């Protein structure tokens, strides 16, 4: 057993160790954390008891006493400490939007300097082999985001549309996050190393893969679900009928997030995917930033303060919610729960009643605003 030095955070260490246990995916990992309360307790539970946990059994249980796994965790712990990497653990310090997704990874490695809980998060994705049309649309879309407050641009740091979106965000001083299909100890493609460095000044890099993980082909579809899960809306700019952009769009749709796409010429293979998303009602068609703002109910100016008496008689609970929503342009459901003091079931019922009265608008990502 590796000796833990006093500065180690045991729970974070064992979260890393849990990620190295073979066969412990999202379902099994979440089940263990729910059953035992923490990764630390999981590793300290007797093997006799642990082998009866769902998804473990005789074969996998021995891994929880495997010194090699703890050595890997120790190596990774030392790497994140040395390189100022932050661990985002499911159920602890974790992006709220992503935590709503059924297949969200148990652990994320984050090197960056911004709060991931921005009011608005936009994924901008597309083909690696873009045209001038795609370049122009991407830059104009990111330029439009300048009119909004507290927005993050998210993409995959790939060639083509991804890189254009990141570069334009950096140019406009809009925070931008690159989600990687490999560890933080490398940049792929290598010629994006300078861009990644610029993104670290106002944004950052995020991955579920530990250091040493190579950019293998199978990692990128997994990366795409994080892009989709972190975003209120996924915008596709030029895509063929197959590839990562379409995978991400369908993932976002599966998460009940908004998807938007720019149409292209019917005989252009690089717009065929976008046209198909629109035709099948997976994506809303947009032609400019204003269309996206309208789709997402993102007004450029803050809404006027609502009078407390709105020609209807509000209950005390309804008035409490209205008062909270007047403080900011948008408020997350978790914040309403925390400040209202209402039980979750009562809060949901009150919000529904206010929405039916036309007083409150529900936004993607469990955000609410005055209608």
- Terminal CA distance reads 58 Å
Number of strands: 12
- Kindly report the spatial arrangement of strands forming the biggest sheet: 1-2-6-5-4-3-7-8-9
Derived from helix and strand composition plus strand pairing, the structural class reads: alpha/beta
Instruction: Report helical residue fraction.
Output: 40-55%
Principal-axis shape equals globular
**Count of spatially separate domains:** 3
CATH top level of the largest domain is Alpha Beta
- The pLDDT mean sits at 88
- Count of individual helical segments: 17
What value does the Rg take, in angstroms? 22 Å
- CATH architectural type of the largest domain: 3-Layer(aba) Sandwich
Into which percentage range does the β-strand content fall?
A: 5-15%
Any chance you could write out the topology, listing elements then pairs?
Blueprint: H1 10-20, H2 26-36, H3 39-44, H4 47-50, H5 57-61, H6 67-82, E1 86-89, H7 96-99, E2 107-112, E3 120-126, H8 132-144, E4 151-155, H9 161-171, E5 176-179, H10 193-199, E6 203-207, H11 219-230, E7 233-237, H12 244-254, E8 258-261, H13 272-279, E9 284-285, H14 289-296, H15 316-325, E10 331-332, H16 333-340, H17 344-356, E11 360-363, E12 367-370
Parallel strand pairs: 3-4, 3-7, 4-5, 5-6, 7-8, 8-9
Antiparallel strand pairs: 1-2, 2-6, 10-12, 11-12
Helix pairs in contact: 1-6, 8-9, 11-12
């Amino acid at each position: 057993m590796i000796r833990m030095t006093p500065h180690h955070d045991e729970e974070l260490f064992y979260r890393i160790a849990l990620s190295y246990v073979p066969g412990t995916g999202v379902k099994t990992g979440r089940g263990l954390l729910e059953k035992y309360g923490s990764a630390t307790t999981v590793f300290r539970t007797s093997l006799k008891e642990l082998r009866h946990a769902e998804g473990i059994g005789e074969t996998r249980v021995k891994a929880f006493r495997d010194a090699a796994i703890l050595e890997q965790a120790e190596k990774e712990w030392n790497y994140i400490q040395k390189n100022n990497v932050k661990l985002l653990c499911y159920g602890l310090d974790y992006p709220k939007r992503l935590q709503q997704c059924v297949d969200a990874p148990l652990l994320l490695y984050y090197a960056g300097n911004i709060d991931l809980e921005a009011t608005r998060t936009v994924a901008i994705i597309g083909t690696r082999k873009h045209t001038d049309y795609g370049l122009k649309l991407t830059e104009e879309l990111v330029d439009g985001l300048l009119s909004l407050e507290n927005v993050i641009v998210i993409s995959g740091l790939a060639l083509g549309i991804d890189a254009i979106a990141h570069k334009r965000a950096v140019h406009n001083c809009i925070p931008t996050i690159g989600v990687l299909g490999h560890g933080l100890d490398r940049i792929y493609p290598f010629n994006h190393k300078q861009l990644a460095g610029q993104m670290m000044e106002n944004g950052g890099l995020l991955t579920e893969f530990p250091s040493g993980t190579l950019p293998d082909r199978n990692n990128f579809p997994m990366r795409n679900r994080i892009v989709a899960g972190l975003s209120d809306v996924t915008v596709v700019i030029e895509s063929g009928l197959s590839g990562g952009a379409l995978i991400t769009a369908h993932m976002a749709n599966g998460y009940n997030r908004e998807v938007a796409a720019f149409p292209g010429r019917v005989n252009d293979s690089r717009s065929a995917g976008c046209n198909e998303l629109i035709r099948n009602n997976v994506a809303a068609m947009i032609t400019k930033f204003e269309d996206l703002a309208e789709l997402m109910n993102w007004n450029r100016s803050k809404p006027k303060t609502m009078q407390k008496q709105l020609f209807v008689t509000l209950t005390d609970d309804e008035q409490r919610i209205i008062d909270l929503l007047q403080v900011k342009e948008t408020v997350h459901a978790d914040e309403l729960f925390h400040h209202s003091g209402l039980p979750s079931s009562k809060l949901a019922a009150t919000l529904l009643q206010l929405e039916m009265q036309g007083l409150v608008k529900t936004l993607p990502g469990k955000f609410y605003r005055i209608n």
